[in-house]
Amino acid sequence: MLLLLLLQHRLPAAAAAAFSNPALSQWLRFRPAALQVMCVRHERMHTPATVRESPGKCGKHWSNLAQEPPAVEAATCPVGSLLPGTQELQPGDELSGTPRGSSHRQTSYGVALFSVLKGPGASKMAVAAAAGGQRADGSARSPRPRVKEGLRAGLLLGELSVGVQPGSAGEENASNLTFLRKGTQAPHQHRGRRVAVALLLRKPALGQGAKRLRREARQGRDAQEEEEEPRGAGNLFEALRLGKSATESVVDEWLESYKEDRELGFLELINFLVQSCGCRGVVTHGMLKSLQNSQIIQQLTESFDEDSAEYPLSLSTPAWRRFQRGFCEVMATLVHHAQYDVVYDEYLMDSLIALLTGMSDSQVRAFRHTSTLAAMKLMTGLVRVALSVSLQKDNSQRQYEAEQAKGLNRRAPEKLEGLLEQRREFQEKQEELENLMNAIFKGIFVHRYRDLVPEIRSICIEEMGQWIQHYSASFLTDGYLKYVGWTLHDKQGEVRLRCLLALQGLYRNQEMASRMELFTSRFKERMVSMALDKEPQVAVEAVRLLTLILQNMEDVLTDSDCESIFPLVYASSRPLAVAAGEFLYKKLLAPEGGCARGDEEPREGARAFLRQLLSFFMESEFHDHAAYLVDSLWDCAAPLLKDWQVLTGLLLEEPPAAGFSDQQESALIMTLVASMRQATEGQPPVGRASGKKALTARERKTQAEDRLRLTQHLIPLLPQLLAKFSTDVEKVVPLLEAPCYFDLKLYSTGRLEKYLELLVAQLWTVVEKHTDKEVLETAARTLSALCCPEFAFFSRVDSALSRFVDHLADKFQHEAAELLQSSLAEEEVAYSLAATLRRIAVFHSAHDLTPWCLFEPCIHLLRHAVDTGEVPKQVVIPAMTCSHFSLLWELAHLSNSTSSGPHPSQVQLLGLKEKVASFCSLCQSCLVDDDSSVQEQAFVLLSDLLLIFGPQLARGGRKALEALVYQAESTLQSQLSGFLVDHVFSHAEASEMGAGDLKDEELQIEQLHQRRSILAGFCKLIVYGVVELSAASDVFKHYAKFYSDYGDIIKETLNRARQIDRTEWAHTLLLSLQQMLTQLLLEQGPAGVGSSAFLEIRDLARRFSLLFGLHRLQNRSALVQLHRDGIKFAFQEPASPSSKLGLVNLPLLELLSEFSPRLLHPDKALLLSYLKTVMSQAHAAGHRGELCWASVAVYQHSLSPQVEAGPEPGSAAKKRLGSAAKRRRLDESSELGSSSLPSGSRLQTPLLTSTALKGKQPLLMLPVGSRESSSESALVQRQPPLTSQHSHDARQSQQDGSGLGSRLDRLILMEDEEEVEEQETSGEEEEVEAVKLLG
């Protein structure tokens, strides 16, 4: 073979002689391509004459080529030694000044030779390029581009970096050297990378040029590894991160580069995925060639920064969320743009899927998350491509069959063959795509859909829903649907939500739903149960899914399944209630057909809807929640609910509609009023939040139109409805609310005053017929809305109100005089007077009835009731209420005159204060009444009145009203406290006795609400300074026992009282403990200290001590005073000198020990000294034996200084860290884990666990001694660097005890040392202050 090559290229005898060299012969024997290149070069460069003239030179060249074969193999031999007729290029030389006409030829020869050094494959490509017959990829091209293609073959493989120095003679060829990658800058401009080897020219350079080349060569050697990285590796990542380029343009540019060189393009895509994982490592071309995927992932894992669990897909900032969307778009666009060629090249997809499969199996969460997302988006793109190919194949098949069906004369054989070949191509493409999809599904999805990370599971299920929905022919099978069904039982709500959303897309299509019968029967029970899911959004989507099943699959949901969904229309969550309302509407309420709105015939569809709605409402047993039902159905049945003509027609129909019972009429009226409210206000009922911030202009316009329409329809009909149902309380109350939703101006603008007079007349009729509080309050609110001065009809309504109040006042005066004159009150007179007073009291709350002077008659009645007790409670309670509102209206007049007119006279102020004092005196007398309802009403009115006329009355620019401030006497405060204890904190036994009676459950709830109102009224008196703060002890001592009923109220009172006066607040807490201990000792004696009751008192003390945890310096004086007063009380002598009990209050010291941990160390020392002083005094008084009680020992131990380990020798000389450094360490430790972990606790494994650290041991903890001896320098030295570490370093750091746990422990200890130093520096000042506190 060698001889043939010699003969073919006509080698001269001198070359043949040189070829006889054994070393050269041995090297060329295994490199025929190298010989071929050298022959080509020899043929073009040396003529036979030249060879004959200088045979030794040629032979020398061939001999030099084979001197060091290993160096040539490694591509490290000098460049100049390989060129004929040139001297060897040294590191400091610079070559420039090429002879004219030889630069192109010289460059092509050198490039061809460097391509030989790469290996047989590259040399073959370069030989073809240098020979001038073909391109490097096999296509023909001109001789000059041949050189460029040959350079590409040698340079892009990472063997050589070529550049042109500015200003050199070789700069004319710079345009030929910018082909490395489209858009890449020249090497001397590209991110500081310098040139290692100059363009190989003949003429050497001297002077400064040689020095520059020598310096750049050194820099090139230092950056050798960096040059191996692809120059465009970060383009994709940076384009997505910055968001300045369109995704399609970025993908198109990458595809162009991939088509030019698929290895470099694929390497760029790999590094894009690696950077998207947050990894600092880079995959080089050498790694891609020589390492397996698992080895590459292993090295990348070691490059991870395990100090942080964050990576791009886990960040939630706007920039990274935009990156996440762009990442998904890139994977989808890549498949879409490459669906006609690159997808089927058997390189990109196969290599990419293999790499993603390996990354998805990594222990690093970032790798698994990112690779799974990329693979699932890739799979979705392939599914769309497969669907397109399938449709094209089916179309080709139909065309072939149509052509085949033609007659022989009309049939075109060429077209048949073309269609057949086209169908065969589509079939091959479809098989290739199915293989790719199968690889992703079995290699990634099957393992990741049950990953530990919920986000990864959500991605898998979400994308599977897309596959099934788009390509149902292949994926709508039980083999794929089972994964969605299994994931319905996932523990994470987000994953369950993704399953439901995926299933909604399937059940929305009726054809798909019909093919899912087996799946539906298997998982129907689970889907129905998810309507009660603990996650609100999951429950909402579950109900929507069931609605789709109900709509597209008949007879699948049974009656029992539906009945479990119906009650959700009363749920407090509006989205869930709306979804259930839509389900209810489509199942039961949707009319089959109806007449148009303008037809005169009855709307049977609307009537049928209302009948079904009322039937459901009555059966649901939630008869007081019509507003919730209407709100749930509003989004899907608003036109039917706003058909007020049908609603009022059914109510006014005579005789009543067939089948309408009395309860159904009540339900229909509540539905009518609820629909009016919903149409005019657009807000959900109380207790159901809508989540909407504001109404749109269109919604406001719709509301205005609905309000106008219902007002025009109901103004003439409302008096008729009130007249028909005026005797029924349940029906008349909602009808009385209706005018509040009217456009009341329409009475005057529409000239409908006659209907207003009818409405007012019906109001008086209803008020005269009823004494029920709810009816009277509703009528008073409606009349107050009509009595607005801005309406033109105000005078008419006001005159009607005056006439009605005149009638009530005259009746009251007559009946009150009759009651006061008779010795024994007749039942009829008492009942009539009570009814009249109820009406007056209710209307007095909404209207100013001061001109009728109702206060004096009411006060006479109350005095008569207190003196004789002959007035029944039905009269006393409304009389107190009426007097109360009379005082408030008079105060309102005086307050208004103070702000807008002349100040009230002193006579007026004193007269009002006398009325207040007399009324409070009467209410105080009623606190001891025999009837509990009278007592409760007196307490409520007293607490409100004392609060209104309290010290804050003269604040806020009302200095003129200072004379009206009423101070409650101590006897009144004591009575209020006693009433509170008797009526609020003494119901536990009664509640336990009646707990088993289910019928009284509503009554118990109502009573609890009443007791909470009483307690809140008393607590407001404490907070606003009406009563002394010490009176709060009767409330605070029940904090622990009644925490479930009143805990929120008492806790808020504790916090507010602390802000008023901390010292007095602490004294009140101590007073509460003293009272409870004294009561225990009185009941059980000294033996009660060991009972469970004493443990309850101690638990209360512990709860009180927690209130001193914050703001220790602000609470310091109050806490010290609490201990001091407690010590005095504990060693207090008995009241009776002859008592033999001794110091019975010593157990209080055990309660004080619960407060000791909140003390500062100097305070503890001084209190301990004070305790010893008091103990010595008690010892001198003859109480020696009693000082051995356990309570004294417990308290003394709580004040003793704790034994603390001393610092390491020399550590005292170390300075504290600055505040900035301290915050920085805390921030870093918070990123690693919880900085508040106690010393010695075991930490969990970090989220980022490398595959290289699979076998690592749990994090080790330093012994206590070593942790205490750790110093700041050791902590700084052992902190992990910002760069990534290898697994060996991480494992070694754990063995040394410098892992995460030990670092956190040392950090905590350092913080403790800082606190100790701060306390030591300020110790003297604290001791001085403590001495002052102790007096």
UniProtKB/TrEMBL annotation:
Part of the cohesin complex which is composed of a heterodimer between a SMC1 protein (SMC1A or SMC1B) and SMC3, which are attached via their hinge domain, and RAD21 which link them at their heads, and one STAG protein. It holds the Pfam family HEAT_SCC3-SA. It comes from Gekko japonicus. Residues 1310-1328 have a biased composition (Acidic residues). PANTHER family: COHESIN SUBUNIT SA-3 (PTHR11199:SF8), STROMAL ANTIGEN (PTHR11199). InterPro entries: ARM-like, ARM-type_fold, Cohesin_Scc3/SA, HEAT_SCC3-SA, SCD, STAG. Residues 1267-1285 have a biased composition (Polar residues). The keyword Cell cycle applies. Belongs to the SCC3 family. The keyword Nucleus applies. It is found in: Nucleus; Chromosome; Chromosome, Centromere. This is Cohesin subunit SA. Residues 1213-1224 have a biased composition (Basic residues).
